[in-house]
Design brief:
Chains A, B: This is DNA-binding MarR family transcriptional regulator. Two copies of one chain form a homodimer. Chain A is mostly helical. The first copy, chain A, is built from eight helices and three strands. Chain A has a three-stranded antiparallel β-sheet. Chain B binds a DNA duplex through helix 2 and helix 5.
Amino acid sequence: MTRDDIDGEAPTPDQARRQVEHYGLEVDPQAVLVAVRLISAGARVGRAAEAHFARFGLSTGRYRLLADLEDHGGEKSPSHLALDLGVSRATVTGLLDGLEREGLIARRPSTEDGRGTVAVLTARGAQRLRDMAPDHFGRLEAMVGGLSVEERAVFLDLLARVVRGSAALTAD
Amino acid sequence: MTRDDIDGEAPTPDQARRQVEHYGLEVDPQAVLVAVRLISAGARVGRAAEAHFARFGLSTGRYRLLADLEDHGGEKSPSHLALDLGVSRATVTGLLDGLEREGLIARRPSTEDGRGTVAVLTARGAQRLRDMAPDHFGRLEAMVGGLSVEERAVFLDLLARVVRGSAALTAD
DNA sequence: AGCACATAGTTAGCTCCCTAATCATTTTCG
DNA sequence: CGAAAATGATTAGGGAGCTAACTATGTGCT
């Protein structure tokens, strides 16, 4: 129980086991440990990502929006963006507001749909992506550098399955 | 490229590859994919967890605090809680405020340190944990039910290593 | 044609967690 | 012993994302 698991490895297997035992439940402590660690790790990595993007004056959400826009030819409707990014339309509105204020995207009315708007990546937005690319992708690569190619493939598979399983949290 | 990857599997390997190629970087697209998927999955699972705990009138942070408190005998200082939960002391203050308002914890001044406070799990707090335990742990188990015992062990190992690697995002 | 209903986008208000600054107590040390 | 530094907790303020409600435009059905 040495205190050099700098944290970040919380909770411990013992904690998981004690909790389950405490309530006399017939639940696999290891399964609980995996679930809780993922939730905890997700928050942790999310915060690290937020700090990372802050270097470039962006947030995780704003970066993801810019990148998605560029990958899609530089134009996309807010609804479509919300769908592809997996966030609400209201969130996209907020992200676009911030990006527009900094001149990284522009909004223009849709030509086909009177209700619609199209978000357009500006030259400045593209430039921002270009500027941060080497550092950004370099750090991402370093992040998983400790895993072999095979391990990465396994991780992707397991991660996808657990994420799919996370529907169990919200079911009903 | 069928559109039945309900999302949740975003981004695609193709997107990762295109992005890296676009900037002519010598970065492994698979590594980028793993990193980006983890960031995305973390946010997704985090939101699912938040919705899950909301059922019981709690948030992820508040639940984690209560659980940690119980596991520690029902008493702990805010600073110690912050350390063990991996959040800032200011966040713990906020969590305690909410929990105290609902009568799930109480604050009493520390007897040893004039500056200190001790958070105490109340009977109501313990009851809340007891009430939610079957549903809560059941769902957690279901979440990772798709993985075999061996796969869970592998996942724990890989997850820990990637989390450790995420320091690369904030380094410097 | 006209009216119900769906859809695009935004706004308002909420919670989560963070950092930075503040205040009160220790603790340390010249 | 008394000043400086460290530590515990809180407050103030900010950004992310959410839901629900609202406006405006499109679509469809009778």
